[in-house]
Specification:
Structural class: alpha+beta
Number of strands: 6
Number of domains: 2
Oligomer: single chain
CATH architecture of the largest domain: 2-Layer Sandwich
Helix content: 40-55%
CATH topology of the largest domain: Alpha-Beta Plaits
Number of helices: 9
Distance between the termini: 117 Å
Radius of gyration: 29 Å
CATH class of the largest domain: Alpha Beta
Bound molecules: iron/sulfur cluster
Strand order of the largest sheet: 4-1-6
Shape: elongated
Largest sheet: 3 strands, mixed
Order of helices and strands: HHEHHEEHEHEHEHH
Length: 227
Amino acid sequence: MFGLGVVKGLSVTLKHFFETYIEDLKYYPKRATLSLADYRMAPGSKGIYTVQYPEEKPTLPENFRFLPFLVTDYEGDDIATQIEEARCTSCGICSKVCPAQCIWIVRDTDENGKPRSKSKQFYVDIDMCMNCGYCAEFCPFDSIIMDHEYALADYERETGHVHDIVRLMKPASYYQSIRPTQYAQKAEQRRREEEEKKRKAEAKAKRLAEKKAAAAAAKAQKDDAAE
Ligand code: SF4
Ligand code: SF4
């Protein structure tokens, strides 16, 4: 029938309009413990809602990702120590897998010019980064993690949009605060790997000791027979 599509379309809009007020009423008893934005962003919530950004910021889901940062196990403010205690071993895997090729790494060297398993410089061009998270996925040392920080507009491209090692460095406690589940899983994985390594080393040492004891016994037997 002529005009039926328009009526149907408008009825959808009207449904959302009324649902907004129904959801407001449902939210009312929960207002002390939950922000309206978080309630409205939860799965199953209906109606229209507006966030008064930047005064109001909805809580981000743990797996939200924007740009990568580097993890350091040092919690203080000294930049040199932060870089020295960074988990990054300068292996270069992240820069190889990055589809946008926006990671540059300069490996550190010791006083003899020998390469160290540390990064001296680490750059991420945030204008090229497409937020895919491959760098964090492939890093074998849990040292590059996708951040939740997204308000990064700047007037200057080189200093503002090419993040260097100092800007990228964040403590492990920050990583734990934004991704508690992932942090706990990785910590547990590392603990298991360490245990397995220790178990293998102990088994190897035991085998070697047994071999040595057997060789000593055989030698003693041989010496006895010779006498
Ligand atoms: S993959 Fe991880 S350890 Fe290797 S260079 Fe990248 S951040 Fe560093
Ligand atoms: S998130 Fe993706 S594009 Fe951005 S630096 Fe990591 S791998 Fe490259």
